[in-house]
Amino acid sequence: MTVKVKKYIELLETAYCGKKLSLRQIESLLTPPDAECEQKLFNTALKLKRELFGNLVNLRGLIEFSNICTRDCFYCGIRRSNAKVSRYTMSEDEIVCSAALASEFGYGAVVLQSGEREDPAFTRQVTRLIEKINALPNPPAITLSCGEQSLQTYREWAAAGAKRYLLRIESSSPEIFSAIHPEESTLASRKAALRRIRKAGFQTGTGVMIGLPGQTLHHLAKDIKFFRDADVDMIGMGPFLPQSDTPMGDAPDDPETVKCRFSRALRMIAVTRLVLRDVNIASTTALQALDPENGREKGVLAGANVIMPNVGNVNYRRDYQLYNGKPALDENGENIRRQLLESLQKIGELPRWDSSGDPPHFVKRTAGAGKV
Ligand code: SAH
Questions:
Q1: Which residue blocks in 209-327 are alpha helix, DSSP H?
Q2: How far is CA 295 from CA 37, 209, 239, 282, 362, in A?
Q3: What is the pLDDT of residue 338?
Q4: Whose CA is nearest to atom 6 of ligand 1?
Q5: Which of 51, 137, 260, 273 has the fewest C-beta atoms under 10 angstroms from its C-beta?
Q6: How far, in Å, CA of 133 to CA of 254, rounded?
């Protein structure tokens, strides 16, 4: 065993035991010296995931209810300047129906995701949706992913009964953030929005894209440190995938780059599990886009404990192409229960149906504060 390998394994053990790691140690963990060490990293993260959550994967049904967006993020297929997309908002009935179907199917939670709008017509519609979904006979827990909003709006949505909120920071590096956004979007305002989300009482989730131009393992280590410092409850991360109708559409996409992005994304999941421990970590659709057969499962094997099958109306799927190659499967179909069961059983896991699946981190941080 070389000195490097020995040191890496020692560090992995230190992380597994829960000792607080320095930024340098986080970066070292993200840089396994060989393929065997990388596998050990995944195995250790999976072991910790299983100790904390058992052999179970929480499911959330994803409903992409509108692609209308006021932002112009350089990477995103639904940015406002992309004239090639036909814009839609599902009707309230359609959205509530999708949520009801998801609940009938056994999903304990749904995610309502959209482009970003702050106008009252939109924010009130979301409030109504939350109320209608909560009035269903067996209401699923609601996660929102609708961008930056005022504290008042976040509070209104929380009061209406939404439980969780996802707002990715995209990159905690000021240089990278400003390279992938127009001037009107700032890292400071994204971070402030994340604090408002927490203040409004939501279980709070964030995340980054992995494999952005110029992004090094040092940047990614800082992202994980940011997650820890922000004390978040949930993480959703995935590889960056160029979308041809965006300013970042001609970013490198050769097989070597893609392979590197995929492997970095898995390492990020594993190291985030070891550093943050009792948070929910999603194995995202972007992983599945790069490896349609096994992408999501590989994320779980690297320590993720949540998957978010798409349960929205399949007719809208082609207009929600955040990136190229986004899988457009109808995951509300008859056989999805069986498929999910089979694919998870293959890797020694089981779907956790009928559970809202709160992250223990949130339960702990709010215990005694009367917020749970
Ligand atoms: N507008 C909402 C959510 C919709 S986009 C919000 O701001 O939170 C959801 C996520 O998709 C984004 O946070 C981003 O991380 C991811 N995404 C967008 N374009 C992408 C691309 N080209 N490759 C990979 N992920 C992308």
A1: 217-230, 255-276, 285-290, 295-301
A2: 20, 16, 11, 12, 27
A3: 81
A4: 147
A5: 137
A6: 43
Please give the structure tokens belonging to residue 338.
């069986």
| Cα–Cα dist 18/39, whole Å | 20
Centre of ligand 1 from the C-alpha of residue 73, in Å? 9
pLDDT at 311: 84
pLDDT in tens, 169-198: 999 999 999 999 999 999 999 999 999 999
Residues of the chain with confidence (pLDDT) below 50? 370-372
Tell which one of 67, 75, 208 to mutate to probe ligand 1, the residue whose CB is within 8 A of the most ligand atoms: 75
Nearest CA among 324, 266, 252 for reference residue 295: 266
Alpha carbons 353 and 108: distance in angstroms, whole number: 6
The CA 242 to ligand 1 mean position distance, Å, reads 11
**What's residue 371's pLDDT?**
41
Pocket of ligand 1 (CB under 6 A): 75-76, 113, 115-116, 145, 147, 167-168, 170, 209, 238, 240-241, 243, 286, 322-323
Residue 290 in tokens: 């790069």
Q: Which helix (H) or strand (E) holds 98?
A: helix 92-105
3-state class of 321 per DSSP? coil
Question: What pLDDT sits at residue 1?
Answer: 83
CB 21 within 8 A of CB 15: yes
